[in-house]
Write a structure and sequence with these properties.
Elements (H helix, E strand, L loop, with lengths): L1 H14 L3 H8 L10 E5 L2 E3 L5 E3 L2 E6 L3 E9 L7 H16 L3 E6 L3 H7 L3 E2 L6 E2 L2 E3 L10 H6 L1 H11 L5 H12 L4 H14 L2 H10 L10 H14 L4 H19 L6 H9 L3 H13 L3 H4 L4
Parallel strand pairs: 5-6, 6-9
Antiparallel strand pairs: 1-4, 2-3, 4-5, 7-8
Helix pairs in contact: 1-6, 1-13, 6-7, 6-8, 7-8, 7-9, 8-10, 10-11, 11-13
């Protein structure tokens, strides 16, 4: 589910504010100035006109004063409108902080990563904006327990990306070991994410190693985004069951976010059978300001 992955990735960057600069330096060879603190900043960018833009996340690195700002954007599909807003994010943040800034796009699909990596022509002579993109092939494999303990969020990211590959069991096991040292909220969430994104064969192997049968999600996040949707889908065929789960998840997210749905719109959601469209609606529902933004494509 795109919305699940989107929110899971953002949680990792929020929970470990040094994850963005670590990825820039370690995976992408982007130099980052020395800093003593890293914190999440306001991700809203308001222009002189009333239009307001929201990035996914902003991480500020400081050393008594701001030294580097990182805009983190999780991008799961192509969206041409982002090629207009991405330069704005970096420039507006630079003006706000009065220090260098960088846009980091996290793309878990290789084709999306290649699209996001294309330079953006600004129109000014000899001027291009170049997004810094983390594609799936650039995420390091964290299979060592010691490495996972030192950077648990990076280990979870590794499990999300490499969980279906040959080393998936070792990557997942490293996260489970590292999670023992974390507070309960993060421990439960990270274990749930490992089991959610591991390949089925890797998951079964890991469950056998843990002498565990029928894993049940423990964290509130995972129960909301995984367990309920899956429960809705068990009664009927695979495609129909997935659509049922997506509809249930969409209605729940809309309710939590306080969107008032007309009877007509509720019937429209309940009658929708396209998995692609339901996934798109659910992804939009996470951050949309008004209901019309969610259903404008149908």
């Amino acid at each position: 589910m795109p919305s699940t992955l989107h929110e899971a990735l953002l949680l990792l960057f929020r929970n470990r504010t040094t994850l963005a600069p670590e990825i820039l330096e370690r995976a992408l060879a982007v130099p980052v100035p020395a800093y003593t603190e890293a914190r999440v900043e306001d991700a809203a960018f308001t222009q002189v006109t009333p239009t307001e833009y929201h990035a996914d996340l902003v991480v500020l690195l400081g050393n008594g004063v701001p030294v580097f700002g990182i805009v983190v954007e999780v991008q799961l599909s192509r969206d041409e409108t982002k090629r207009f807003s991405w330069p704005l994010y970096a420039v507006a943040l630079r003006a706000r902080l009065r220090c260098p800034t960088c846009l980091l796009v996290v793309a878990m699909d290789q084709q999306v990563a290649e699209w996001a990596s294309e330079p953006i022509e600004l129109g000014q002579p000899s001027s291009q904006f170049q997004p810094v993109v983390l594609g799936p092939g650039m995420v390091p494999v964290v299979a060592s327990e010691a490495e996972a303990r030192s950077a648990p969020e990076l280990a979870v990211l590794s499990a999300i990306v490499h969980g279906k590959e040959e080393q998936g069991t070792e990557v997942g096991k490293a996260v489970l070991v590292a999670a023992r040292d974390l507070d309960e909220e993060r421990r439960l969430l990270y274990i749930d994410l490992v089991f959610a994104f591991l390949g089925e064969d890797k998951r079964k192997k890991l469950e056998e190693q843990m002498a565990r049968q029928g894993y049940e999600y423990q964290s509130d996040f995972a129960r909301r985004y995984f367990a309920e949707g899956r429960a809705e889908g068990r009664a009927e065929g695979k495609a129909e069951g997935k659509a049922d789960g997506l509809r249930a998840a969409l209605l729940k997210v809309l309710g939590v976010r306080g969107f008032a749905l007309s009877p007509e719109l509720t019937r429209r959601i309940e009658a929708e059978t396209s998995i692609e469209r339901l996934e798109r609606w659910l992804s939009s529902a996470i951050n949309a300001k008004v209901a019309s933004d969610i259903f404008s494509d149908a």
